[in-house]
Design brief:
Layout (H helix, E strand, L loop, with lengths): L3 E6 L13 E5 L4 E4 L5 H7 L9 E3 L5 H4 L2 H10 L4 E7 L2 H9 L3 H6 L1 E7 L4 E4 L2 E7 L7 E5 L3 E3 L7 H6 L5 E5 L14 H7 L7 E5 L9 H9 L5 E4 L5 E3 L1
Parallel strand pairs: 3-4, 4-5, 5-6, 10-11, 11-12, 12-13
Antiparallel strand pairs: 1-2, 1-14, 2-3, 7-8, 8-9, 9-10
This protein binds zinc ion (ZN) (2 copies).
The site of one zinc ion has 4 residues, from loops.
Length: 246
């Protein structure tokens, strides 16, 4: 089944101008999902003309602020729009964090209804008509990569993983974080050369680099060249509001 992917935010925790933090909207004829909800995603949803009423299912890759800081504002906006019930999937710790946060605002606590499922890497499940597989990422805290209908993979935040080559190998599109260029310290994140090496035997048709920090500006061509030294497929850099069909 065909799916449409809209990139809502392609910046990292320190986003360059013109990039919101992490957020992706996925839709098919069966349903739709929001994947991550960092700062700026609520604005981008409006710009992409995505109806908040449709966003009853949200997946988080991990619990860093740049992947979830617009979540409570979004849930509150959905309540004001008439939708109180949302299904949320995330890594270990999601339930405790959301309970703590929501307790700070009575009006959120009273009106927003969340049903939360915590996931471990390797778990597979179905949501909104998508078959979803997960992979444990390496990011210094519980973090997941997700695969949708064996077509599309989002890495979330992670160092390059050799397991990713196989996980994404049957897909058409891999959206992978590549926070910083080669030669810049990037603990817990991916840089082009190591990412290309990890994906050397990956058969995915297209790789899109996302979660960008300011030092990537002006290095776009060099980053793509560096990944391509080992990875044979198409490579490009992500842009906010870009759309893909796979
Ligand atoms: Zn991040
Ligand atoms: Zn992170």
């Amino acid at each position: 089944m065909m799916m449409k992917i809209t990139l809502l935010g392609t910046g990292g925790a320190l986003p360059p101008g013109g990039r919101a933090q992490s957020g992706i909207f996925i839709e098919s004829t069966e349903g739709c999902l929001l994947l991550d909800c960092g700062s700026g995603v609520l604005l981008r949803l409006a710009q992409a003309e995505i109806d908040l009423a449709r966003l009853n299912t949200i997946l988080l890759t991990h619990l860093h602020l740049d992947h979830m800081s617009d979540l409570l504002p979004l849930l509150t906006a959905r309540w004001l729009n008439g939708q109180v019930q949302t299904r949320l999937y995330g890594p270990e710790g999601t339930e405790a964090l959301l309970q703590d946060l929501m307790a700070h605002w009575d009006y959120v606590q009273e009106h927003v209804r969340l049903s939360i499922t915590e996931l471990q890497g390797g778990m597979a499940f179905e949501a909104q008509g998508f078959q979803i597989d997960s992979l444990k990422a390496e990011h210094g805290l519980p973090a997941l990569a997700y695969k949708f209908d064996r077509r599309f993979v989002f890495s979330g935040d992670t160092v390059p993983l050799t397991e990713m080559a196989q996980f994404a190998g049957d897909c058409k599109l891999l959206l992978h974080e590549c926070s910083l260029p080669d030669g810049v310290e990037a603990p817990h994140h991916s840089r082009p050369r190591e990412l290309g090496e990890a994906l050397a035997n990956c058969d995915v048709a297209k790789l899109v680099l996302t979660h960008l920090y300011p030092p990537t500006q002006g290095c776009e061509a060099e980053m793509i060249r560096s990944v391509k030294q080992h990875f044979a497929g198409q490579v490009e850099l992500a842009e906010d509001l870009a759309r893909f069909e796979v």
